[in-house]
Specification:
Number of helices: 11
Shape: elongated
Distance between the termini: 39 Å
CATH topology of the largest domain: Rossmann fold
Number of strands: 18
Largest sheet: 6 strands, antiparallel
Bound molecules: guanosine-5'-diphosphate, manganese (II) ion
Order of helices and strands: HEEEHEEEEEHEHHEEEHEEHEHEHEHEH
């Protein structure tokens, strides 16, 4: 789960990482109520990167200008996300810009610290064009992250004296955030040397903050905001313990097991169809689960056909067939049904005049063909 910049910065501040003084507003008029020293920086709070380039970050020298610019940013759309909130912060006078992040290197099965003196721009661009400007240090999970690591990285980035000490403190805090908050990514870009701030002259400052919490660990952190925006149908599916995801095509898909569902999506796309959504009824799905599943996927707007791909294992084909036969959908449907209790399942469907495929590819082709006709 991604956190908004201001949410990440609250956590940063709690761990002693210097940030700018600021406040969040949702209407331009609220500028008049903020007690900040001008100039200020107005920052769109959206969960996508590159806000600066997209016009979502602007400086303002006095309140009238801030109000006018806030009105421009609030409501604008950045990479498809509408700006609902704005972080107003005391602008920093930025000198050098650095990059610092902790993230999980899955291949190495450990945390990695990534640093660069070429901050402020996309780290992927730096990695592509000037990889020598990036330092990477893996952290041994058995021995942990030590001050000598931070000093080593800091020196490689060119920090000296006071800045080296500040860098070491920030890196140490960021590593603690990463482990204690179960973050997949804790990133500061840019980490800047500022000319003047409340934090003191020429100090290091986290101008931006990015924090992604591992979804599997969210339950361990009570105080976290809930940024996931689920659609009404996703909420309905979740309440039934069904995993459901919305896409933007027109073929509704139900399968059992994540692997089968993924390969079903691939097959549909391969034959030229566009999945509208997909729902995994999981192992051991009952007639009731299947009934719920059908009602959820079919409620999505724009669905023009239904594809059901079930490979019975613990799930029994007759249970699935009973749900299908009891409520034939209002759109063309193609069923592939095979595995445990297949004969019984087929017999039930046959009575309802529903054909069941055995070959998943033939079934996927059939549903795409039906769509072409419709
Ligand atoms: P991002 O574009 O979404 O990564 O947003 P950032 O918070 O990293 O800001 C993008 C850029 O805007 C920074 O690299 C700075 O150049 C500029 N910027 C952000 N905050 C300030 C500020 O307080 N003062 C000044 N002068 N520039 C800022
Ligand atoms: Mn940034």
């Amino acid at each position: 789960m991604k956190l908004q910049e201001y949410q990440a910065k609250e956590i940063f501040a709690a761990y002693g990482i210097p940030i700018q003084k600021g406040t969040v507003i949702d209407r331009p008029e609220k500028i008049d109520e903020v007690a900040l020293t001008y100039p200020v920086v107005l920052k769109a709070q959206v969960l996508v990167g590159g806000r600066g380039k997209a016009g979502g970050i602007k400086l303002a020298a006095q309140p009238a200008e801030a109000r006018q610019k806030a009105a421009q940013i609030l409501g604008m759309s950045i990479k498809g996300e509408v700006v609902r909130r704005l972080l107003v912060a005391e602008a920093a006078e930025i000198g050098a810009e650095y990059y610092l992040a902790f993230t999980v290197d899955r291949a190495a099965r450990r945390l990695v610290v990534i640093g660069s003196a070429a901050g402020g721009i996309d780290i992927e661009d730096v990695a592509r064009t000037t990889p020598e400007k990036i330092v990477k240090v893996h952290i041994d999970p058995f021995t942990g992250f030590y001050p000598y690591h931070t000093r080593e990285i800091g020196r490689t980035l060119g920090f000296k004296g006071k800045h080296l000490l500040q860098f070491a403190a920030i890196a140490h805090s960021l590593s603690r955030i990463c482990t204690e908050m179960d973050a997949e990514l804790a990133e500061i870009n840019p980490l800047a040397i500022v000319k003047t701030t409340a934090a003191g002259d020429g100090s290091l400052l986290a101008v931006d903050a990015k924090l992604i919490i591992d979804d599997n660990a969210i339950y361990r952190h009570d105080g976290l905001p809930r940024n996931e925006e689920l659609t009404e149908l996703e909420v309905a599916a979740r309440s039934q313990d069904l995993s459901y995801v919305e896409l933007d095509g027109d073929v509704a898909i139900i399968g059992n097991g994540a692997g089968l569902v993924m390969s079903t999506l691939d097959m549909i796309s391969h034959f030229g169809g566009r999945p509208a959504n997909f729902l995994d009824v999981g192992g051991g799905a009952t007639t009731e689960n299947m009934t719920q599943a059908m009602s959820i996927v079919l409620r999505k707007k724009g669905v023009r056909s239904l594809f059901i791909n079930i490979f019975g294992g613990i799930t029994r084909c007759d249970d699935i067939a009973r749900a299908i036969a009891a409520q034939p959908p209002p759109v063309p449907m193609v069923v592939r049904l095979t595995g445990t209790n297949e004969e019984e399942g087929r017999a039930i469907l046959k009575q309802a005049a529903i054909h069941a495929h055995i070959d998943p590819e033939a079934a996927a082709q059939e549903v795409v063909r039906l769509m072409g006709k419709a």
